[in-house]
């Protein structure tokens, strides 16, 4: 099965088919899938909070990195694609039990490098929580 079809069969459900144990721990729900564009929803859990009771910036960064990894999966590349760097700006936060939405898209897909963007929003997309870009490198398995 091609990877887009594999992701699409989980639309509206938790993506339990991920090869990433970390993604399984994050429990994303797949909202939409296109080649190079994903939308996942997450529910903020108590262990994701900082001492102020807000979504921890490190968890936000982890979601960012993991959903961009899934976006690379959607490209159906024969090579493995690894993160070179992430640059994230934080604008707002979320609280326990809030639903947040991560949207990704490919900005540039070159022969060796891929540049991707991720935005993380509150559930109704009225408040941007974080936005950033990632550079990734294609390597052979």
The total of helices stands at: 3
Give the biggest sheet: 6 strands, antiparallel
State the order of secondary-structure elements, H for helix, E for strand: HHEEHEEEE
Query: What is the typical, i.e. mean, pLDDT?
Result: 95
**End-to-end C-alpha gap:** 20 Å
Report the count of strand segments. Answer: 6
Name the overall outline: globular
Helix content: 10-25%
The percent range for strand residues is: 35-45%
Task: Describe the protein's architecture and organization.
By secondary structure, the protein is an alpha+beta fold. The protein is 21% helix and 40% strand. It is built from three helices and six strands, in the order ααββαββββ. The protein is globular, with a radius of gyration of 14 Å.
Task: List key phrases describing it.
141 residues, alpha+beta, 3 helices
Which secondary structure elements does this structure contain, and how are they paired or packed?
Elements: H1 3-8, H2 21-26, E1 29-34, E2 37-43, H3 57-73, E3 80-90, E4 99-109, E5 113-122, E6 128-139
Antiparallel strand pairs: 1-2, 2-4, 3-6, 4-5, 5-6
Brief description of this entry?
By secondary structure, the protein is of the alpha+beta class. Helix content is 21%, strand content 40%.
């Amino acid at each position: 099965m091609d990877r887009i079809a594999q992701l699409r069969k989980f639309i509206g459900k938790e993506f339990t088919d991920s090869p990433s144990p970390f993604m399984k721990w994050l429990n994303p729900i797949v909202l939409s899938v296109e080649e190079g564009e994903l939308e996942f929803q997450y529910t903020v859990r108590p262990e994701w909070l900082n001492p102020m009771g807000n979504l921890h910036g490190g968890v936000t960064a982890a979601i960012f990195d993991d959903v961009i990894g899934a976006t690379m999966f959607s490209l159906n590349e024969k090579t493995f694609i690894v993160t070179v760097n992430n640059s994230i700006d934080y604008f707002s936060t979320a609280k326990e039990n809030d639903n947040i939405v991560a949207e990704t898209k490919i900005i540039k897909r070159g022969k060796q490098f891929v540049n991707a963007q991720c935005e993380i929003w509150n559930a109704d997309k009225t408040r941007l929580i974080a936005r950033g870009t990632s550079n990734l490198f294609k390597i052979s398995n």
